[in-house]
Amino acid sequence: MFDEYVEHASQPGVAHAAMSSLPTEVQYEGFEPSQYEREELVKDIFTNQLEPEAPAPIFELGQVQYTLPATLISLVVSSDVMVMGLSNNALVLIEMSRDDQVFQIQIPKKTTDFTIYKLFLDPSGRHIIVTSTQGENWYLYRGWKKPRLLKSFKMIIESVAWNKAHLLNATHQTSTREILIGGRNGTIYEAVLDAQEDFFKSQERYLQAVFTLPERHPVTGINFDYFPITDPRKTLVLVTTPTRIYQFVGAPDRRSEDGGRVFSAFFATYNDTAPRILELPGNIDHSELHVYSQNADQALSLPNAVAWMTAPGIYHGNLNYESVSDDLIDGAQLLPYPIIPVSPSLTPGRSNGNEPTLPFSLIFTEFHFVLLYRDRVMAVSILNEQVTFEDILPLKPNEQVQGITTDPVRKTYWLYTDQNIYELDHKNEARDVWKIFLDKGRFDLALQYAKTAKQRDTIMTAQAHTFFAEGRYFQAAQSYAQCSATFEEVSLKFLDAGERDALRSYLISRLERTKRSDFSQRMMLATWLVEFYLSKCNELDDIVASESISQDVANLQAERAILEEDLRHFFQTYKANLEPGVVYELIQGHGRTDMYLHYATVIGDHERVIEYWVMEEQWTKAIDTLNRQSNLDLYYRFAPTLIRQAPKETVDSWLRQQALDPLRLVPALLRIQKVPRDPLSPNQALRYLNHVIFEQGNKSPTIHNLIITFYAANPPVSSEDDGPLLRFLTTTPSDPLTGKPYYDLDYALRLCKQTGRTQPCVHIYAKMGLWESSVDLALEKGDLELAMINADMPPEEDRQLRKRLWLKIARYVVQQKQDIKMAMRFLENTDLLKIEDILPFFPDFVVIDDFKDEICTALEGYSTHIDSLKAEMDETTRNAEAIKQDIAALEKRFVTIDADEKCTVCHQTLLTRQFYVFPCHHTFHADCLVGLAKEYLPASSLRKVIALQTELTKGTGQTPTGPGRHPTSQRTLLSANFGVSVPAQNGTRAANSLGRNILSAGDRLRDLIIPDTLAGVVTAPVGWLPGMGLTGKKPTESEEKQKEKLRKELEDLLAGSCPLCENVVAGLDKPFVKEGEVDSSWIL
Questions:
Q1: Which residues pair with 93 in a beta bridge?
Q2: Fewer CB near the terminus (10 Å): N or C of the chain?
Q3: What is the C-alpha to C-alpha distance for residues 479 and 473, in angstroms, rounded to an integer?
Q4: Residue 684 phi, psi (nearest 5)
Q5: Which of 428, 165, 119 minimizes the C-alpha distance to 296?
Q6: DSSP secondary-structure letter at 1013?
């Protein structure tokens, strides 16, 4: 809240006129420093030109714009809660985190009876103790409207030690737990306060005196902490008087969780033994004890430093909780007060105004002691004991300084007089800390507190010079790499000192920090480092070679191995910053073949590595290098050489690389065709080609022809030599579209003929469909079994060809072999030939006894076949008779109908005229059936019905004409329907008319069918005419049979099936409501 009311006493800013003096470009000579450092330095220069010349003050005093209602006596702050004790016995509470939280609470005592002496506020800002000069004490809990009197607290309180761990951790509890109180009478009290309302208990739950100092001086300061943090088994209690500081160390008594009676037994141990005491005599009646904690806002934190304001000076030191002695103050020092000029008006009677003056009060910050005097405030650095800040207080007449206090949790500092409150801003407190640590040579701490790149550069430069002067060259190299020292200067320093290893370390660090866009600088550094590495390796090689006889060189060999590994890692890391041609020359100049190959591998120059191993005739290593890369062109380039020298390993390499194009490896495969090889070792070319064809599914005719070339390369010694080739020809895949193999059949046949491979030729003939040629060639070579196999290859349906092939084999067996018994056994292998088929091949004078049994067997077979045919014929005759009987029985079927049955079409009584009844119980009048059936019959059936109609009415003197029709012949009617009389000169119109007439031909045919006439001729006896009865002329028997046949045929067409059931699909395209028909049932 006070940020709005604080007026800072800083000087007004200087105008930014220095912009014009900023250099336009920062000039460097020689090797430029790191781009990152240069940018930061330029930024610092720019910033420094814009900033005021005077640096910002370390501390800044600002007055709080708040009007006090009365004279201020005491002020305490903790956890952003400020409590002021006024001379009118009023307490003002301000919650600084909220603007409107200002409360004034009155202590119900007269000023003549009660005078506020001091206020004590716990770290959480909830518990307030008010002590008076009369020895009366009051207690206020934040949130109460009025304070409560502590009746048993009958002492003047000088100091209070709060239980910080409990109060900061338990924010919702009302108890203070155990606290220690230092009285003016030299007694230490243990007490417990609880703000919880309890009818039977007061707020002062416990109060007991636990220890009395022997000199009974006022206890001006007291503090206690439990340690260690994770398992607090011990307690440190610090107590101060105006001249002494006590240290009590022991185990607390934690029998009660509610607090209280913790320190009784603790101090009881010092009844017989004296605590640790340090006395600094002086003529003063007050002192102050302060502790500083880096993480004071955390409940489980311990103070790490202590300061005691005494007459000789400030006694301060660090707290060492791991000390085995009873003195936990480590590195204690006494800081004398600074000499300040004292005004004679303020100190009358003083002869010398330049003597050290005792401050009125002090506070303890991270790096300073802030001293409060009666007219000024002054800060002394803890690090170098120098005055870093001084400001004269703007006091009014009769205005008196009261004190200075701190918020230990929020680390804010407040100075107050009896009329005003000031805030001491310390945000720039660490401004010069880096300089102090730099002067002390503590570079790590100086870097920790450096805020700008310029400061860090100054520190690193000083650290580098220090390391170099002390002979710590590697540390100097790392520091030089991080500062702005010029590259030439540093390099020459190391070269002059002969420290090439340290220079190498410096170059590596500079390379790591050089911007990637500075490609030229990075390349120069990297190349120089390669030269350093190679030279060092050769140097170690020479040392190892010269001293290997006289002494143990294991350490040198280990160092060389480490250096070589570093160089390999360097190649891997900075390969993008090296020029391969230059590096190759450097490596070759130093004779480092291993590094030559490693560098080529790192940058992916596998071609150079393979070339080297090929020149060295290290075929296996060349193939291994080939396998570790993915460039297929290298496989094709080195294939001819490697396949000749190491065929198995080369083919293994090819098989692992599935992406290779076998066509580009054909030249390499052809080179090993004529190379002599061990007959017991497999042909690696065939191995690769078989893998490509059968495993990878290669379909290239070139590859298939090549493998046949390898198989048929040499003339066969025996028939077994044809096995691999024949096995390939029988198992090779074929084109699924054509059914032919992928190799060239003509080329394969020509090649096999040239090398005298009979079985493969026979197989190829069969593949070409030349079955007769394949059988002829097999018989020519005397291979009867092969001829029989090929004779069975033609399709089953081509029995003539198969029989012809088997006759060829039979003729060969009879005429060439002249073995009658073998010829008889030959007939058992096929069912295409009989004994009579091969009899013409026998000689004219052959003795029949050799095959008499076979002839008899054939005759018996013929007889058996004739008997089976006769049995089949008899069975067929019986089946035909049964079918005739079933048809006759169907004609005698009957259906029972009701007398009032209606026609399905016209809905009139069915029995009024001829009718039909179907098994589906649909009933139709004969003429209604004809009229319904003609709508669904196809055009072919319609033509047949018209022909039958004409035939049945012929010779009766009646023509099938409807109302208004002119009798014409059937042919004339049909011709007219199809428009054949259209003049030929109008060809286009005739064509269009013909198309339309064809589309409507079915409808016109239906118009020619007269239902009444058909109904009469179908159902009437022979000679009966519609409307005339029987004619006088009696038809002949042949005419009667003919008419009956025509009538039955017509009846089958019209009444063969129910038109509603079986022909309903034909009417799917017809509308429900016909054209011209009005149906209101569809209206919504």
A1: 83, 103
A2: C
A3: 10
A4: -70, -30
A5: 165
A6: H
Task: Fill in the DSSP letter of residue 913.
Answer: S
Distance between CA atoms of 825 and 273, rounded to whole angstroms?
134
Q: What is the mean pLDDT of residues 837-864?
A: 64
Residue pLDDT, tens place only, 506-562: 999 999 988 889 989 999 999 999 999 999 898 888 888 887 666 777 888 888 899
Tell which residue, 886, 936, 953, 896, has the closest CA to residue 1065. 936
Q: Specify the pLDDT at position 814.
A: 65
pLDDT value at residue 999: 43
Report d(CA 945, CA 1058) in Å as an integer.
17
Report d(CA 1027, CA 1023) in Å as an integer: 12
What is the token pair recorded at 854? 């076979």
DSSP 856-911: HHHHHHHHHHHHHHHHHHHHHHHHHHHHHHHHHHHHT------TT-B-TTT-SBGG
Q: Is 414 helix (H, G, I), strand (E, B) or coil?
A: strand
Classify burial at 520, counting beta carbons within 10 Å of its beta carbon; exposed 0-12, middle 13-18, buried 19 or more: exposed
Which candidate, 812, 819, 821, places its Cα nearest to that of 790? 812
Confidence at 1054, pLDDT banded by 50, 70, 90: confident
Measured CA to CA, the distance from residue 418 to residue 403 in angstroms comes to: 9
Say which range, 639-648, 651-660, 865-874, has the weakest mean pLDDT: 865-874
Nearest to 465 by CA among 452, 448, 483, 450: 483
Q: Would you place residue 23 in the very low, low, confident or very high pLDDT band (cuts 50, 70, 90)?
A: very low
Alpha helices in 473-518 (DSSP H): 473-481, 487-497, 500-513
Question: Pick from 739, 738, 722, 697: which is nearest to 786 by CA?
Answer: 722
Banded model confidence at residue 225, pLDDT cuts 50, 70, 90: very high
Tokens found for residue 217: 């001086």
Report in angstroms the alpha-carbon separations of 322 from 229, 238, 325, 326: 12, 16, 9, 10
Max Cα distance, the chain (Å): 184
Q: Could you tell me which of 225, 150, 152, 218 has the C-alpha nearest to residue 188?
A: 218
